[in-house]
Design brief:
alpha+beta; Jelly Rolls; five-stranded antiparallel sheet
Length: 350
């Protein structure tokens, strides 16, 4: 930083009438020092470039290590996908510090290059045990376009750049929305614990997924044991038809019973299996004797199921289940002769 000495003269004139006489007072000349800020912008730009480059270098290994697992919460999966957008936005901002990238040819070449880089990353991920995904490549490109078009000056091609900025925002908004919405749903589910799910709100419905169901899950008012809604599910005839509750489940160790209410809308009884497991099971060998399994005979009408927590805790052979790390809660039907309609409500701990 440089300093310059600049003389400044202050002239203060005061008319002071006293006994009809005017007195003019001329006050002082002073010297003072002022800083020169002309080199600050360059200093800040260098710090920005260095910091951004360092952040990108640190983030690179996470394309091949870490990431969501089969038991990760939904918000973490969305957040990890959002990381692709953030990384490639940062990389594009760094490139814009050295190259103008102001023509449509440069935009096409950059997009094609990032597409190829994304393909290469996905291929390499296959060899380190990670799943490949076209969604990741799309998120990479969205990140590039977001930084590329918002980094352009409006002096040239103003209308085109404004349109491309709007388009890039529209492309990335769903990823941001899914992440925020999943995090909000996760927070609400944690706050209502030990009520696991009563299917009263959208965020509770989002915590339920299905596999090989005859009909998709939906809220229903027909048969309700708690609140205003239950979950209507039509189990299919596949070998395994599954209703699964996505975490969080909370710490079960302080409670005595796990309970849920199931209404069988069919005229005949049939069996379903309740499966409960912890992280050690789901991240391990996934053995049948390493989790809790209970066959439940559903008679027509309401079935109020209650299972002691101690039975769940001691179900794995050779160890005890970690009740503060429950990661799997499923209701499974096996090879039904025809689809069966059930209503599920009020999953809770007591």
């Amino acid at each position: 930083m440089q300093f310059h000495t600049k003389p400044r003269v202050y002239l203060v004139i005061t008319d002071w009438q006293m006994k009809r006489q005017s007195f003019v007072i001329i006050c002082f000349m002073s010297l003072y020092v002022t800083p020169d800020y002309s080199d600050w912008s360059g200093c800040l730009r260098n710090k920005f470039i260095n910091g951004l480059a360092l952040a990108l270098i640190v983030a690179c290994p996470f394309f091949f290590i870490g990431g969501p697992s089969a038991v990760s919460p939904l918000w973490f999966n969305h957040l990890w996908n959002l990381g692709h957008i953030i990384f490639f936005s940062g990389a594009t901002l760094l490139a814009l510090q050295f190259f103008p990238l102001a023509s449509w040819r440069a935009w096409l070449w950059l997009s094609a290059g990032v597409f190829c880089v994304g393909i290469g990353i996905e291929i390499l991920q296959h060899f380190v045990g990670r799943d490949s995904s076209w969604d990741d490549i799309f998120h990479n490109l969205c990140g590039v376009w977001l930084a590329l078009f918002w980094g352009q000056k409006l002096a040239v091609k103003r209308s085109l750049v404004v349109c491309l900025r709007a388009a890039s925002l529209l492309l990335v908004m769903p990823s941001f929305w899914f992440t925020v919405n999943a995090a909000y749903s996760d927070l609400r589910m944690r706050n209502q614990f030990p009520l696991i799910n009563s299917f009263e709100n959208d965020y509770e419905i989002q915590q339920v997924t299905g596999f090989q169901l005859q009909a998709m899950k939906k809220q229903a008012r027909d048969h309700v044991s708690h609140g205003h809604f239950s979950l209507a599910v039509q189990l299919g005839t596949a070998k395994y038809s599954v209703v699964k509750w996505i975490s969080p489940y909370g710490d079960w160790s302080r409670y005595h019973d796990f309970a849920l209410d199931i209404y069988n809308a069919e005229a005949q009884s049939f069996d379903v299996t309740l499966k409960i497991a912890d992280f050690q099971h789901d991240l391990g060998r996934n053995a049948l004797d390493d989790r809790f399994n209970r066959r439940i005979n559903l008679t027509p009408g309401w079935n109020f199921v209650r299972i002691p927590i101690e039975e769940i805790r001691t179900a794995p052979v050779g160890r005890v289940m970690q009740m503060n790390e429950i990661s799997c809660l499923e209701l499974i039907s096996i090879s039904l002769d025809h689809p069966r309609l059930i209503y599920i409500d009020n999953l809770r701990l007591e």
